[in-house]
Amino acid sequence: MSKAVATRHIAVDLGASSGRVALGTLEGGRLHVEILHRFPNGGVPVRGQLYWNVLGLWREVLHGLKLAAQHGEIQSIGVNSWAVDYGLLDAQGDLLGAVHHYRSPRLDGVMQRVRAKLTDEAIYNATGIQFLPFNTLYQLAAEPSERLARADKLLMIPDLLHFWLCGVAVTERTNASSTQFFNPQTGKWATELLDALNIPTEFLPAIAQSGTTLGLLTPEVERETGLKGVQVILPATHDTASAVAAVPAEGRDWAYVSSGTWSLVGIETPQPIITPRSLAENLTNEAGVGGTNRLLKNVMGLWIIQQCNEVWKLDYADLYEQAAAVASCSTIDPDDARFLPPGADMAARVQAYCSETNQSVPQTPAEITRCVLDSLAHKTAQILKALEDVSGQAIRVVHVVGGGSQIALLNQLIANACGKWVIAGPVEATLMGNLLVQALGQTDLPTLRQVVRASTALQTFSPNPQP
């Protein structure tokens, strides 16, 4: 690889609160990432419901591609995003209405109704997926039957953008595996679950592996952006799968925390683990790059602090520094349902939880932030213990990647709570995983991770019983 000519690739990373278009240059076994365009994202409230502005995202992506066209020859482009949300297309390929947000109130009570009709065992044995109220299965169960009857294609968010980029409609495997109607053991849609709920299955597209080349940009996109001869190549379109592909790990005795708005805590396994114990722990099996399985659990992450800071308007670096200076006083369950919806009262919800559980009530932004970070660390430790018990794999080191890996206090708290070494970085794991899967295709993961290690400065935190 060190003698290869430099190649350039574009990664589009769409997160729940922001998006980026980045240029990756792979040369001499190292990857250089340059973010060309950043733009905000978030839910749009309309008549009591919450939607995504996907057309606005598309406009921003096109702008980012115009900037990329100024950097010379580009080999490929790939899009990743959050999971579970989708667009419905009619037979002409046009959107059937707005794209719902996974935090929309339309989903209130839907998971409970579905689980009352289908047993937990039937759903979990077919999918191996954690029960979360916003999974795509429940979103489809909430759809009006008339809208589903008109749909010709269901495309997850990155698959929708790939369709707009090159005209090919498929679902990439890692994102398919998040829906709770994908069978990780057969690699096919678990259509029996949808049949039991009277949900059509004809609109489900073919499932494709990450690294698959879909084709060239359409002439329309070429004219709009100035890019020529660029292939659309599927990365791991689920952002967590891209991030895990870029975990700079060696050996097998490691776990990861993809730390951001959500905190994804997991390990990599050769095969799905679908057992009564994994069901009891509500662990999820999602597809990874190179045919791997990601056994993990979703935890509410920095979302709680982000919502609080929408009101506080404080500099995050200062906030975390102040939180490090206050003593631990109380903890919350970050997955309590009260913390899922957005709102300016998030800090009050944290205080109410502490009061209801007879703990000291944090008052200042620093105290509330420390409470949340302590809680995330303790939750991470609980999940890692469950992962070891369920899988039989010992965990020696925990890799923290993503935006949260920049928070030294959180990294140290995780090391303390788990009693394990924590290695922080890369911050841009999702972008790096996306770019490298494009560049390397189905090359073995160790090769990909060698590139990450060669391209990233990492920081290590040793466990210390004193916070």
Automatic annotation (TrEMBL):
<keyword id="KW-0067">ATP-binding</keyword>
<protein>
    <submittedName>
        <fullName>Rhamnulokinase</fullName>
    </submittedName>
</protein>
<comment type="similarity">
    <text>Belongs to the FGGY kinase family.</text>
</comment>
<dbReference type="InterPro" id="IPR018484">
    <property type="entry name" value="FGGY_N"/>
</dbReference>
<feature type="domain" description="Carbohydrate kinase FGGY N-terminal">
    <location>
        <begin position="10"/>
        <end position="244"/>
    </location>
</feature>
<dbReference type="InterPro" id="IPR050406">
    <property type="entry name" value="FGGY_Carb_Kinase"/>
</dbReference>
<dbReference type="GO" id="GO:0008993">
    <property type="term" value="F:rhamnulokinase activity"/>
</dbReference>
<dbReference type="InterPro" id="IPR018485">
    <property type="entry name" value="FGGY_C"/>
</dbReference>
<dbReference type="GO" id="GO:0019301">
    <property type="term" value="P:rhamnose catabolic process"/>
</dbReference>
<keyword id="KW-0418">Kinase</keyword>
<keyword id="KW-0547">Nucleotide-binding</keyword>
<dbReference type="GO" id="GO:0005524">
    <property type="term" value="F:ATP binding"/>
</dbReference>
<keyword id="KW-0684">Rhamnose metabolism</keyword>
<keyword id="KW-0808">Transferase</keyword>
<feature type="domain" description="Carbohydrate kinase FGGY C-terminal">
    <location>
        <begin position="255"/>
        <end position="440"/>
    </location>
</feature>
<dbReference type="Pfam" id="PF02782">
    <property type="entry name" value="FGGY_C"/>
</dbReference>
<dbReference type="InterPro" id="IPR013449">
    <property type="entry name" value="Rhamnulokinase"/>
</dbReference>
<dbReference type="Pfam" id="PF00370">
    <property type="entry name" value="FGGY_N"/>
</dbReference>
<dbReference type="InterPro" id="IPR043129">
    <property type="entry name" value="ATPase_NBD"/>
</dbReference>
